[in-house]
Design brief:
It contains 13 helices and 12 strands. It has 2 domains: 159 residues, Glycogen Phosphorylase B (Rossmann fold, 3-Layer(aba) Sandwich), CATH 3.40.50.2000; 155 residues, Rossmann fold (3-Layer(aba) Sandwich), CATH 3.40.50. The strands form 2 sheets. Strands 2-1-3-4-5-6 form a 6-stranded parallel β-sheet. A 6-stranded parallel β-sheet has the order 9-8-7-10-11-12, with helices on both faces. It is 34% helix and 17% strand. The longest helix is centred in the last third of the chain and has 18 residues. Keywords: Transferase.
Length: 338
């Protein structure tokens, strides 16, 4: 029996919003081969811009009408961060895609998230923590991890140990605060080893207080360099506190590092613990002492760096491949429209 071709209207958060790029947009071309066409509706104002919420809500109104001809509506989190707005007015079936604990968003996330979830036909959640929460409000919840485009994120090719050991972190500047928690072990490590450095790939520099300035490099993030810059790292790091917000994160930094065949040091919080359980990919660290020791262990062992990196890459290929996840999404969409 020939599968029906379906048209999806994707209501996303903005051009360069990570959740848009990696939870929706990267699948558009892949979904075509599964009988799904995705038309993205990007608001005039980015969801994270500083304008008052009424302006952001108004920017969503055109998509309400333009999406009427679609067979299915795919929403990237709430239409306006922290508010319930027009979700109930959208054509059905509706799919909510969530890769954050949006019920914690200020000011009305605790109201918005249940309201939106109850008015969806399906919720696609990025990890089990999110899925468990949304299952209170919707009986059709699927866990779909954020995937990696293996054509863009390629493994670094280094046959001999580099002269410089490079600690790498990538992310938005709003998350630089997580680096503050490990500034002391970073300082101790960099000071003890002159052939080491920290590279921060972000939209703004990290304003640290005590690291040796000649051993810290800032590289301004662009969509073009976000994958290739990882090849300059020896290890990728992902520090996080353990709280309700961070437990909702979908380990994307870890997955990016692993796709580049890098070992990882990360806080064992939320989905990070699940990723660590898949193989010997690096070290979980939840105290300054463990962070310092993990850095030392990798610094002294080039073979461990290579082996952990290779294991991580294999785990990405087997579990977080964008081609595989696209097929999973297509099955969900066809089930809703058949």
């Amino acid at each position: 029996m020939t599968q029906k071709h379906i048209k999806i209207a994707a209501l996303t958060a903005g051009k360069n919003t990570p959740s848009t790029r990696f939870r929706i947009r990267q699948y558009a071309e892949r979904l075509e081969s599964h009988g799904v066409t995705v038309e993205e509706h990007i608001p005039f104002f980015e969801k994270s811009c500083g304008l008052p919420s009424p302006f952001k809500a108004a920017a969503r109104i055109p998509a309400l009408f333009r999406s009427r001809s679609a067979d299915l509506i795919w929403i990237g989190k709430e239409l306006v961060q922290g508010y319930p707005t027009f979700e109930k007015l959208l054509k059905r079936p509706r799919v909510l895609d969530a890769d954050d604990a949006i019920w914690l968003n200020f000011p009305l996330g605790r109201v918005a998230a249940p309201f939106i979830a109850r008015n969806m036909d399906t919720v696609v959640a990025g990890n089990s923590y999110l899925a468990d929460h949304f299952s209170q409000y919707n009986q059709n919840v699927h866990i779909v991890p954020t995937a990696i485009d293996l054509n863009r994120y390629t493994p670094r090719q280094i046959d001999t140990e580099p002269e410089t050991f490079t600690i790498g972190w990538t992310g938005l500047a709003c998350n630089n605060k997580y680096l503050d928690d490990i500034e002391q072990p970073l300082k101790e490590f960099l000071t003890a080893h002159q052939n080491t450095r920290l590279v921060v790939l972000s939209n703004k520099p990290w304003k640290h207080n005590s690291l040796p300035p000649d051993q810290v490099e800032f590289i301004r993030w662009t969509p073009e360099n976000e994958a290739t810059t990882l090849h300059r790292f020896s290890v990728g790091i992902m520090p996080l506190p353990d709280n309700k917000w961070t437990r909702g994160k979908c380990s994307f930094k870890m997955l990016q590092y692993m796709a580049a065949a890098l070992p990882v040091i990360a806080s064992p919080v939320g989905m990070n613990k699940d990723v660590f359980q898949k193989g010997e990919i690096g070290f979980p660290a939840d105290t300054p002492k463990k962070w310092r020791q993990a850095l030392e262990d990798l610094y002294k062992n080039w073979n461990a760096q290579k082996q952990m990196g290779q294991t991580g890459r294999l785990i990405i290929e087997q579990n977080y491949n964008a081609d595989t996840i696209a097929a999973q999404l297509a099955k969900i969409f066809h089930t809703l429209t058949d």
